[in-house]
């Protein structure tokens, strides 16, 4: 039975809200299918504003993979701003997709991609607007199955009450497998109802269904081992890993936003995974092993994507793009292909020791010379040993000197504050480093007008990393160190006026820490915050620290724990962690040993170029590192 568009009811509301164009759909390369001609229907949600969600690669890839199947339909939905939310409630308009403006509650599945835990409250808004019960236990066969994915789904326990299932890892093959199970179940007449469908998903071993696992606590408030409560459900759930990226050249037709978005470019993921072993980096740990896309595969994706989209910038994405074994050949080949056109190339944040001026010159050959970004992460050599960021200050000064001498005028440096074992001095050395960058840059360039911007974020310990046991630094300490750092930066006015400083205070980081390492008890905090008006918590203008801390006190303290239990408390080695039953492939003993190495300030090499360190991923997941070089070159093509 066809599902009608809600647009006739939505359209009269749009002149009354900010940025109404974000709700109208119709983007270049978007897809609208006949509802009745499809057997399985997905709504894919990025739980943030359109301008943040539309460029998201994960959603864009799944949208295209699913819509390539003739009997499957996938549409997109994003979080609506509070102004439209109020009007939708007033006029009875449900949460809708932007493609065909169909109501979210009509779909078979709602797939939600969480890049950050601060999007949890936006999920609750969408479910409530859609008329989908907030709690999974209250849903019936009439409601969609809500599936969480993305990096924040590697510990879905805080949102276990609100999602029916979670998928760990890469989504391309996972969504196809889930689609096949739903299709077969529907063709059979939906035997056993919603419970049977969820059981079929769970028994694959790659879909986590929280209701099938019992969670209990001992008298001290500590978590007992989480165990399955029915026979067909595995004791642990494993992450999905997509190998051979050349076989998955998505997105082939990038979506082109109608409204301004955070990334106005076409992006190509040149490899997935990272083995640098930075101990703070959840993304690097959970996406192992490294899998490179070939130079030919990258060239084909860039050519076809530009042809289909008309973008004028290509972002070569990965966790550390300059580490691709053929990055020099890739950048030169692409620069040769598009020389004389309006097409520019960019790399995201680059490792200091992987950067060279030849690479930078290829990226800027078409005349676009924006600032360069590097991420030393820690201010002192000591703290960089703790976090395994194996780069020296001498490396950094040599690199930025070459950049300034080569004509660059702006360098941005990323750091973190609140790292394990950190002292005031570790943070104050950021100022000394920035001042030395300015001195070296002036000497190398012979100019006074160069700039260095230091950007500092609060550190949040994450699951499936060696720092998952670490105590998080409290916000007052973080803020105190940042104040001292600003004073140190400005202590020499002749240098300080060329140094910009951007930072986030410690309060949002503490809430992110609560959500990232929380267990199911934290779900009631999320719900209370949402009921009290929590929306868009990743946006500083909407975030309320007081709302979160008061909700945590009200909901957790009667249970004998508090916000500090989940954040500023160091864990013991034998403690049961809320994600122990969710297998990222990393051996817990290896992670613990690496945590001990961190405390001893011992560094670990990149296993791409050294013997295996037995992190456990390759044997556990049946995978292996896939890297070049292929020895191939990019051939010229007709410029787009």
From TrEMBL:
InterPro entries: CHP03960_rSAM (IPR023862), Elp3/MiaA/NifB-like_rSAM (IPR006638), Radical_SAM_N2 (IPR045784), rSAM (IPR007197), rSAM_horseshoe (IPR023404), rSAM_sf (IPR058240). Residues 260-498 form the Radical SAM core domain. It comes from the Bacteria. Pfam families: Radical_SAM, Radical_SAM_N2. This is TIGR03960 family B12-binding radical SAM protein. It comes from Actinophytocola glycyrrhizae.
